[in-house]
Design brief:
A 3-stranded antiparallel sheet has the order 1-2-3. By secondary structure, it is α+β, with helices and mostly antiparallel strands. Strand 1 and strand 2 form a beta hairpin. The chain contains 1 helix and 3 strands; from the N terminus they run βββα. The structure holds zinc ion.
Length: 67
């Protein structure tokens, strides 16, 4: 079962509508929309991770310089 890109809730497949519906927030998406949304949401998170990593490395360097 896929998870809701909006709230992280469990999504149920409704065969009659050919759509996934979130049990938590009620968001309904087709398989295609779900894949597209996941792709869109994946990238900013990875960039954020990179930025956090770089900031930590900088902080480490700055602290070692200070000693
Ligand atoms: Zn949801």
């Amino acid at each position: 079962m896929p998870y809701c890109p909006e709230c992280g809730g469990l999504m149920l497949y409704i065969a009659s509508n050919k759509q996934y519906v979130c049990q938590s927030c009620g968001l309904s998406l087709t398989q295609q929309e779900l894949v597209e949304l996941k792709e869109k949401l994946k990238q900013p998170y990875e960039e954020e991770d990179e930025r956090t990593k770089r900031r930590k490395e900088y902080l480490k360097w700055w602290l070692s310089k200070k000693k």
